[in-house]
Design goal:
alpha+beta; 28 strands; five-stranded antiparallel beta sheet; BirA Bifunctional Protein, domain 2; globular
Length: 564
């Protein structure tokens, strides 16, 4: 691809072109005023096919750093020069490898296929902007995405999946279904609309059901706290690059700095530490739908899936060491039940161990990792191990679900922490009348509520099951004379606990049905002359079409069953 681009746009500077999940990309700096558009992708593909047909060999040569730097400076390729200089500085290399195919030579570690003729089927998919090295203070480059497969059939299957992904894209469905909107005034900070707020509350209801079932107490802690707290918790040394800070107003001599909380655990520790506790109170399970803020570069924000402001369904369990196994088992069981409820039946479990940047002793980490490993083995769960991917304060179990498109998403987590209770001087009085430090289990069943909502929208393509739909049914009067009865029916269903609305517009019933279908409402309840006479409604299902007439009481029961 880079060969074709440089041929079509002489003077283009090339930077990096790595493989990624599902394909590859290459970042270019095009000459002034010559940036290609989506329409140019077919031109690039045609030039690529010519090089594939020529079956050009990929020829490797190893050259000294000085030779490579001289070559790329002469060709006015400053990004290659910078990459080589970084290799010298960071790895002390004295030589680098170059690969050539046809007229183009690139800096690359390899290996490569023997020749261009080995390429089976490929397609360029899109063009986007990308800062050099992800730094918004650096040059904006043009990123061209593509994918390649051994056969045309494989490529076609992949493109079909991408088309389905576009149909499921929550960023398109969110505004269309009145769920949420994203605004430039608040990048990475979703605005929840009427239906989306209902969806969030329904998700919360399911989580709260698990809290009630398992003896959790719900708390709420402030969104902004003194900077000193984050020094005490360890976040300052390990996480401050991802935090937002509030400068002091300096009113009345107050020069304290505050930070928006990126995590809820320090606040929960303050709640636990505000009272004396006995061993009889443990495990003490404190849950919180906590609003947190984390700094993310604008270039990596992605709908609801990568945001700056979100809510976590957090909980912090303070317990004695011998209570840890039962608590971990209960958390895992809770996650199983919740995912099944939301329609996720393929779940993968991963144990993440100590990262390079961490706090605590080797003995504490070994004990914590062994405890989580034993829990998974006791539950008979197959699991992967992800070395070095734990949090800075402890190892964790992560739960990944597979959605309707076969994509994997990390959701729930269960983390064992011996560090933070000690940092906050948290204790409980043991049966021996001595003070002991509790073990802290951090757990989230869904993780970010915003992210989970985005995953849920895409999993169902906006066609939520009846119990989860923000609007379960639309009552559609055929003509204005049917509006009064339609309004009465809606009131009856609402009183029975259903979520319904009336389409009171002076439009044809066909138009109303079409609009309800586009809104992906599960049920449409048509009220016309025949329905008035029969004391019923004509029921139409988004999934199954016309279901015939039903009494209003039967519809109420149907909706009540769907809302359970």
């Amino acid at each position: 691809m880079a060969t074709a681009v440089v041929e079509l746009w002489p003077g283009t500077r090339v930077s990096i072109g790595p493989p990624i999940e599902g394909g590859f990309y290459y970042d270019f700096e095009f000459p002034e005023g010559e940036r290609p558009s989506e329409a140019d992708l077919k031109r690039i593909e045609a030039a690529m096919r010519a090089h594939i047909a020529a079956d050009e060999p990929f020829e490797r040569s190893d050259v000294t750093v000085a030779e490579a730097l001289g070559r790329f400076r002469e060709e006015d390729q400053p990004y290659k020069v910078e990459l080589i200089e970084d290799l010298v500085r960071d790895q002390g290399v004295e030589a680098v490898s170059l690969y050539r195919n046809g007229p183009f030579t690139d800096l690359c570690g390899g290996p490569h296929a023997p020749s261009t003729g080995r390429i089976g089927a490929f397609k360029l998919s899109s063009i986007a902007g990308a800062y050099w090295r992800g730094d918004e203070t650096r040059q904006m480059l043009t990123r061209i995405y593509g994918t390649a497969f051994h056969t045309k059939a494989e490529l076609e299957r992949h493109l079909e999946l991408l088309e389905r992904a576009r149909e499921h894209d929550h960023r398109r469905l969110g505004p269309q279904l009145d769920l949420f909107m994203l605004r430039p005034e608040g990048p990475g900070m979703p605005f929840w609309l009427a239906n989306g707020t209902v969806l969030l509350r329904l998700i919360e209801r399911e989580v709260r059901g698990q809290l009630a079932k398992r003896g959790y107490l719900e708390i709420k802690t402030p969104r902004i706290l003194d900077e000193e707290l984050w020094h005490r918790s360890g976040h300052w040394d390990n996480y401050r690059d991802n935090m937002f800070f509030a400068e002091p107003s300096k009113r009345d001599g107050d020069e304290r700095r505050f930070a928006l909380k990126p995590m809820n655990c320090p606040g929960a520790c303050l709640v636990f530490g505000s009272q004396r506790h006995s061993y009889r109170e443990l495990p003490l399970r404190l849950a919180e739908f906590g609003d947190v803020s984390r700094y993310e570069r604008e270039g990596v924000l992605h709908g609801l899936l990568r945001v700056r402001a979100f809510t976590q369904d957090d909980a912090h369990v303070y317990c004695a060491l011998d209570q840890v196994p039962a608590e971990v088992d209960s958390i895992c069981e809770s996650i199983d039940e919740l995912y099944a409820r939301f329609g996720f039946d393929r779940v993968r479990v991963e144990l993440s161990t100590r990262p390079e940047k961490s706090i605590g002793t080797d003995e504490q980490w070994e004990r914590a990792e062994a405890g989580l490993r034993e829990a998974l083995e006791r539950q008979g769960r197959e699991h992967d191990v992800s070395p070095g991917e734990g949090t800075f304060y402890g190892p964790k179990i992560d739960f990944h679900v597979t959605d309707a498109l076969g994509r994997s998403w990390q959701l729930g987590t269960c983390q064992l922490d011996f560090q933070m209770p000690a940092r906050f001087d948290l204790t409980y009085q043991g049966e021996d009348n001595h003070e002991h430090t509790p073990v802290l289990i951090h757990r989230a069943l869904l993780g970010s509520m915003e992210r989970f909502a985005g995953i849920l929208i895409e999993h169902h393509a906006g066609r939520f099951p009846l119990w989860l739909a923000p609007v379960q049914a639309a009552v559609l009067p055929v003509a204005d004379r049917h509006l009064e009865r339609a309004t009465e029916i809606a009131a009856e269903l609402t009183a029975a606990g259903a979520r319904v609305r009336v389409d009171a517009r002076s439009e044809s019933v066909g138009r109303k049905i079409r609009d309800a279908e586009l809104a992906k409402l599960p049920l449409m309840l048509v009220v016309g002359d025949r329905e008035l006479e029969a004391g019923a409604v004509a029921v139409r299902s988004h999934a199954d079409g016309d279901l015939g007439q039903e009494p209003v009481a039967a519809v109420a029961e149907r909706l009540r069953g769907g809302g359970a």
